[in-house]
Amino acid sequence: MVFFSGLIAGLGLIVAIGAQNAFVLRQGLADRHVGLVVALCVVSDAVLISAGVFGLGAALAGMPRLSVWLTLAGIVCLVAYGLQALRRAIGGGGLLADEGCGGASAIRVASTTLALTWLNPHVYIDTVMLLGTLGQAHPAARPAFAAGAITASLLFFGVLGYGARAAAPWLARPRTWCVLDGLIALVMFGFALRLAATL
Fold this sequence. Notes:
The chain is mostly helical. The protein has one domain. It is 80% helix and 0% strand. Helix 3 crosses helix 6. The protein is globular.
């Protein structure tokens, strides 16, 4: 039962359009380094979820200065990714024209994945603080709760990365990507404004 509580909580927090998820989707559609990207996202989530559920969430809650710096870093990251998406939307080149996706080396893809994960304050808020707080409600079954939340991450990123191939015939059209990139840019800028409002 606690496992499913962790699973549902994890899915509820992770299923949202964001810079990291958009990047995983683009890699899945390009069919490049999908396993590497999914693995890095899941392992990162596993580390952060475990840290939150087993006590770090409460510790970070008492460090407001660190929270401010994480928020500033997140704003910069979100604005930069939003500008990249806006440039792609205006350029109309489609998915494979994105130099940060299709033709990038494994090292570049890995570094981008890690940056979009570890420099995103929403990741810390969702995995460390929120899931950490929820996990504290099950002191005797925290491992089961953490396992459920980590399973949610595995399922979501696996479906997002590998499931994108099934949508490739529709999403490979340049016009479709112009619209999608435009929406991604708006969402990124919206998240950046929301974060800025919390400072």
